[in-house]
Amino acid sequence: MMNPRVEAALNEQIKKEASSSQYYLAMASWAENNGLNGTSKFMYLHTDEERFHMLKLIKFVNERGGTAIVPSVEQPPLSFDNLRSVFELLLEHELTVTASINNLVDICLQEKDYTTHNFVQWYVAEQLEEEALARSILDKLKLIGNESGGLYLFDRDLEQMTAQNNPAPQV
Ligand code: OFO
After folding, report:
1. What is the CATH class of 4-164?
2. Among 50, 92, 102, residue to substitute to test ligand 1 (most atoms within 8 Å of Cβ)
3. C-alpha distances in angstroms, 98 versus 70, 103, 114?
4. Are 26 and 78 in contact (CB under 8 A)?
5. pTM (whole model) above 0.85
6. pLDDT tens across 23-68, in order?
7. Where are the domains of the chain?
8. For residue 46, which atom of ligand 1 is closest to its CA?
9. What is the DSSP string of 69-136?
């Protein structure tokens, strides 16, 4: 049996990962419709990664004797102002996910659930990486400003970067 408080917090996290996946899927689709192929590929990969984060949690909860709740998800926005605002929203979103992971760590410690605490460390490391990546992309976009040649090159770079990445890992 899982500690009920930890189980509830893990189910909350499942919901967050599902909504992250949906959010980045909306960004991928918007970018695709706006000729931003690199950004679109990056976001399609990212939406799969978030789904993987969700699946990993679902399997963990079920394997530990809990019941994973597959959540319904809200419809994300249909459009975005521009490339920079997409990545600003992504970083903002990741910061809320990090806060939620930190809260999960706190609950594990309070409830002395060291197994889940150990499992959640993977997410702690993942959040560090995701925030760093979002910040480095935003730094580039700030340098470029509204210069269309620069934005074109940025999008192409992102395409190359995504192509070098492995496809989303399997659970
Ligand atoms: Fe699941 O790491 Fe982003 O949200």
Report:
1. mainly alpha
2. 50
3. 21, 9, 19
4. yes
5. yes
6. 999 999 999 999 999 999 999 999 999 999 999 999 999 999 999 9
7. 4-164
8. 3
9. -PPP-PPPPS--S-HHHHHHHHHHHHHHHHHHHHHHHHHHHHTT-HHHHHHHHHHHHHHHHHHHHHHH
